[in-house]
């Protein structure tokens, strides 16, 4: 029996401790909704409180919907989990021919293609959904095929494209018709225009200085230039992270998963297919986030993390997208599901609150999750300067560039990442990538450091390469989130 009144007090206290705008929480136990409630403020300036129908972006929690869409096609005999994807999309290519020939639907959905994240190219980038997937052929692998687990958004988008190719419907159309509508998820959507037009939506926030656990600012929704709701065109990254939903709608999704694919008396997805998504498909060598004694097994299913928690199988997935964080968690053998949605970027209150709720439902004590997660986050932020220092070369003091600053200016191109533009303005170099411009500080010799606290590449260094003709001919750049690959080369194409 869950003490709901006690939970309300705990949730409110934890929200205050984390100094975040709001958290909306849903709990289902044994088929009954125990709690569906919002805490804090959906909009801080207007002091608007959230309710169970307030819209939040759920980010990567969308991945499980893509896996479910694929599962429906598997049940219909249109797809097979373990058949090469090129059998269905002959145009799909990876850089390694062996991967191209052998990668299966399951491989795409459980992050074992050998590719690191390679996310930077699509964040605020100009590509369409199909161009995103076509870009797989340019991406450098970090590991051999099926040897290593690494979270990879573009491969999930490829799974969404597979749904489109096999049905003639957009991923958005298919998910809406085949999942949202049967489950009664009437508030859920895919479009930023839709959430902004809805009076009952949460405003996105983050901290101006993430190193400090204080201060809040409102930020815009992440909206792709390619998104066009009127034409039914969703964000290119949609299958990996574009869904917006509410606590009430997500509780319907959780109950559907706990009921092994059944909605009322209708088996929407077979129990066999649900089992495939909820089982360990790829082992992970370590937890994605905080190590803890309560968890000792880590893996990925298809669209879900599959772990153990205090001896119980736990199926969960988090999500984060500009100004929003979400977590969907299930303990199947307890018929327990928890949904936590926040309008705060990179929030871990979702985990602290969820694990405390689970402990109370299990009758377990001693988790102290709020303090443990806050301590963990503090350690991560405190270690950021050292991690960045380790990524950059040891600085050699007293050096200067080998060329005039004007010689470094130009457009530099990489097959995966597109163009970097370097400009010389008033004796300073500026770096522009995907519409974001940052100042470059001289680091040493022909190496410069990106100086913009809010940019994706803040603090990272890039170095200019000199050709046999003595001219600046390339940029060597260690792209964020790709440590297994190392430097990417951008060739100079215009002065």
Concise description?
By secondary structure, the chain is α+β, with helices and mostly antiparallel strands.
Would you write up a description of this structure?
- The chain has 495 residues and is of the alpha+beta class.
- It folds into two domains: 4-80 and 98-385, Beta-lactamase (3-Layer(aba) Sandwich), CATH 3.40.710.10; 405-494, Lipocalin (Beta Barrel), CATH 2.40.128.600.
- It has 14 helices and 22 strands.
- It has helices spanning 4-18, 63-75, 97-102, 105-110, 129-134, 153-167, 171-183, 192-197, 238-241, 247-258, 271-278, 349-362, 369-391, 405-408; strands spanning 22-29, 32-40, 56-57, 205-206, 217-218, 244-245, 262-263, 266-267, 282-283, 298-300, 305-309, 312-321, 324-331, 336-342, 410-414, 418-425, 428-433, 436-444, 447-451, 461-466, 472-477, 488-494.
- An eight-stranded antiparallel sheet has the order 2-1-14-13-12-11-10-9, with helices on both faces. An eight-stranded antiparallel β-barrel has the order 15-16-17-18-19-20-21-22. A two-stranded antiparallel sheet has the order 3-6.
- β20 (461-466) and β21 form a beta hairpin.
- It is globular and about 75 Å long.
- The N and C termini lie far apart (69 Å).
- The model has no long low-confidence stretch (mean pLDDT 94).
